[in-house]
Amino acid sequence: MMWQDLVFLAGSTLSIVFLAPTIRNATARVPLGSSVPSMTIGAIYAVTYATMGMTFSAAGSIGVAVMWSLIASYRAPGEETGLRNIAYFYAGQLRRGKRLASDAVDSNDARIDYEQSAD
């Protein structure tokens, strides 16, 4: 075991402790734009730590990802609850990305013709 594994576990444990009041507070509202990316990063870190053999860090990151998924599911500002909030967020991001790409292609700024300058 590497000492860094314990340091990352301690950091994850603190994150879980600090996130717990948000889950307990029924009136708390956390935007999906904060909770879903944090949940995703926690899951990615867990996989990364696991592939590096850092078992304790991976377990701590899974705990953080679970806490953020609970916040995204039950403390989002909308009326929906559960995993639909997470799916709703990703679907909205996909729509925004498509719209952005479509606007960039249709934009006149993307089709500026440049003349060669005189030497």
UniProtKB/TrEMBL annotation:
Keywords associated with the record: Membrane, Transmembrane, Transmembrane helix
Transmembrane segments: 43-68
Keyword Transmembrane helix: yes
Protein name: Uncharacterized protein
Originating species: Natronobacterium haloterrestre (Halobiforma haloterrestris)
Organism placement in taxonomy: Archaea, Methanobacteriati, Methanobacteriota, Stenosarchaea group, Halobacteria
